[in-house]
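Final report, closing paragraph on structural work. Over the funding period we assembled a curated collection of sequence-structure pairs, and we close with a single example.
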Amino acid sequence: VQLVESGGGLVHAGGSLRLSCSASGFTFSNYDMSWFRQASGKQRDWVATITKSGGTTDYADSVKGRFTISRDNAKMTVDLEMSSLKPEDTAVYYCKGTWGPLDVWGQGTLVTVSS
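Its predicted structure, as stored:
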C-alpha cells in the first residue's frame, strides 16, 4: 500500500506547478483522495478532496479558484494543479487516500514559492 507524490519544486510567485500522486497496492477507485500541506513549524492543513468517482471536489478557501484536483482511476493517480502561487503556499504537500476508517498517506513533496 503506497502513495508517492511528485512534481514539487521551486517556483516564482504567480507561477504554476502540477503535483501528482501515484497509488499502488490498493483499490484506488474505492478511496476518496485528498491533498494536505504542512508549512514549516505549522500544522498539516487540508487543501482539497476529490471523491472516489471524481464527481465531487472541494477546496480550502485559501486555494479555491487557484488549485484544481483531479484523478485518473485507470492510472491510479491524483493530481493537484496549482496556479497563481503565493509565497504562503510554500509547504510540503501530501496526498491522502481515505476509505471508511482507513487512511493512506504519501511521504510528501516540497513546494517552495519565492517572492
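Residues 30 and 99 are 6 Å apart (CA to CA). The mean pLDDT is 97. We thank the funder for supporting this effort.
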